[in-house]
Amino acid sequence: MSESYKGHGTLIADSEEFPCRFDLQVYLDRGLKTGSGVIVAESAALWSAFKATKSRVRMADGRSFPIILKSVAFGSDQTPFLLAGAIVDAEN
């Protein structure tokens, strides 16, 4: 079983926010959800998220999910990430 999420959103690195595009695949593996994907944003935004204590992606519908960037290449505008927790509904 898998789910796919992709679109435009906001990359949140600690308290900084940056526009982004993302493609996330979530899989059910032995009863646990795991996920990975690719995020596209300005290279400075990716670097900020890589260094940040907490990084999240907020989707256009307001739901968000925590991420861990796997690596950031200097000057690149895209990088792979791992899902680092649950996809949560928008805060009221």
Query: Average pLDDT across residues?
Result: 93
Determine the structural class based on helices, strands and strand pairing.
mainly beta
Q: How helical, in percent, are the residues?
A: under 10%
Strand arrangement across the biggest beta sheet: 1-2-3-6-5-4
Alpha-carbon Rg, integer: 12 Å
CATH class: Mainly Beta
What structural keywords apply?
1 helix, 92 residues, Thrombin, subunit H, six-stranded antiparallel β-barrel, globular, 57% strand, mainly beta, 6 strands
Brief synopsis:
The chain is mainly beta. It has a single domain, classed as Thrombin, subunit H (Beta Barrel), CATH 2.40.10.
Structure in words:
10% of the residues lie in helices and 57% in strands. The protein is mostly beta strands and 92 residues long. A hairpin with a 2-residue loop joins strand 1 and strand 2.
Topology overview:
Blueprint: E1 2-13, E2 16-29, E3 32-40, H1 43-51, E4 55-59, E5 64-69, E6 78-83
Antiparallel strand pairs: 1-2, 1-4, 2-3, 3-6, 4-5, 5-6
